[in-house]
Amino acid sequence: MTTTTTVPPAGAQPAPDTRPSRPRKRARRTAGEGRMAALLLSPTLLVLALVIAYPLLSAVHQSLFRAESGLDADGFVSDVDAFVGLANYADLFAGESGRRFLNAFANTTFFTVTTVFFETVLGLCLALAMNRAFRGRSFLRASILVPWAVPTAVSGLLWRWIFQSDGIANTLIGSEILWTAEGDASKLAVIIAEVWKTAPFIGLLVLAGMQVIPGEVYEAAKIDGAGWWRQLGSITLPLVKPTLLVAVLFRMLDALRMFDLPFVLIGPGKESVETLSMLAWDESNQLRYGSASAFAVVLFLYVAIVAIVFVKVLGADVTGAKELKLLSKKSAKKSRSLATSELKKAEATR
Amino acid sequence: MTISDLRNAATDSGAVAPDARTAVVRPQKPKAQRTWRSYSVYAGLALIFAYCLAPFYWMLVSSLRRTADIFDNTLLPAPFSLENYTKVFDGSTMFGQALLNSLIVAGTTTTFALVLGVSAAYAISRLDFRFKSVILGVIIATSMFPGISVVVPLLRLFTDIGWINTYQAMIVPNLSFAIPLAVWNLTTFMKALPFDLEEAAMIDGCTKWQAFRKVLLPLAAPGVFTTAILTFIHSWNEFIIALSMVNDPKIQTATVAISKFTGATEFQAPFGEQMAAGVIVTVPLVIMVLIFQRRIVEGLTAGASK
After folding, report:
1. Domain residues for A205?
2. B:135-164 residues touching chain A, CB 8 A cutoff
3. In what helix (H) or strand (E) does residue A67 lie, and over which residues does it extend?
4. Domain count of the fold of chain A
5. Which of A200, A242, B15, B18 could form a disulfide with A144 if both were Cys (CB 3.0 to 4.6 A apart)?
6. Looking at the complex, does the CB of residue A114 fall below 8 Å from at least one CB of chain B?
């Protein structure tokens, strides 16, 4: 990274950004610049250390303790934190609390897989439809942002109203389902409400990816006789794949920590919709910080593993770090991504 | 587009015999296909439109019914009534206070996140230093941190230091998602701005700070604004932190307040009031979305479509 500095050939027309300044900047990587960067970044990193690193370490620490009532030195009953080692983690798989944990774990996984699947399919359809629309696109874009902007708590309330036993959902489909009580119907209600709110988000991201694809590619495909499906399979989907991967990753991480929607739509402590976040929240509400922390740590690990798998195995380029690396290493790839950013700029100004 | 161009070209120069012939004849079928297709596109758009807005519309309509006919299923409120709205604000629920709290919490969170975000984003996009991509990676990774993993430990800490039922107990944890969001958005935005202008300013004798303040910041203003909107919406919609850190109705935010709306009668959930409160909480956001839709979409898609 530090050694491969490509110097532009003399007389070459310099590209508009990053490129020309690069060699010079590299030469000037001085103590002054580093110090300034440290100065500018330290407040952010400090706050993140306080609100992310500290809670994480503290959660790991607390998960090794358990509140136990005992007698203190003066013979009064008091709650003390006793060190219990990994007992809180062992309990994840045993007894009543273990059953509850496994249920929450299963629910979380089930909701993540189902909602993200339906969101992706629906989001793709939305993006395809919006990509075709020329008139009324801005109108459409505004309306598609509405579900995204509705606070999740409000959307939970809204769907609770729609799914009332004598509400509009049952009236429309002529049934008498108890959507907001325990049972599979409540799972379905959560999925419907979640997909409604988040499919437009995926749609927007994918649409942005689609708009970067140059029209000539489709023209060429048309001339070669490729039909709509063929174009979709051979051009659109492969080219929006990087965008789609990032969108799916974001949605999965968000779905894994799902809390507000089942909490408001169905209610706390309902077995059929209890997620890991809800379980941990409930435990900490009962002042059982030890097990609550253990649940929180497990959820964190779950999220981290999913993120790592996505970034490493599927190659989701989240930070754009890949692009940076390519920029400094392979000039061929670089010119391509520069071209893309040019296209994007052109798209933005249009 | 191309087909009609072809056709025009063909009819303009009628001399070109065989090629133009096919070009003129062939479009007939696509034309029929095209009208059919454009209908189906419009039908699809209408469907999307209904999908996005119908639930919200139902909330709006229900909020405008009287309590007596809240279970009506007509598409318009039969006797139009603002009864639910007056009830929401009649004082017993402190909903006005909750709205104000939301505004304070979301506003302060946004301000802090922007100040920290701008300086961090400037360093990442303009300065050359070691571990840059690592630091950016760490900042972005923190945005994936599940809220509950912040809430559980901090709940205990805040209990110990007496922060429960204070604004800062919500604002500080809110920064855990607001800062990564702001840093990321602003970095993407600043990276896209050409370095040349600042360079020119510095050649003309500006210091780095002046170049930042007088050249980059005005150029980045739209990006800062977009980031502000997104951060504000996220903080306004935040639920789990506000729910956990506060139990005093005087301090709680609007999202928590409406989730706890029980109304005067314990037995019947006051759906009309809940819907009215929901509309009130959502309408500022919907207005923001309508006005700034282009910016919001830009901000949302900034990082994802590389």
Report:
1. 91-318
2. 135-142, 144-157
3. strand A65-71
4. 1
5. A200
6. no
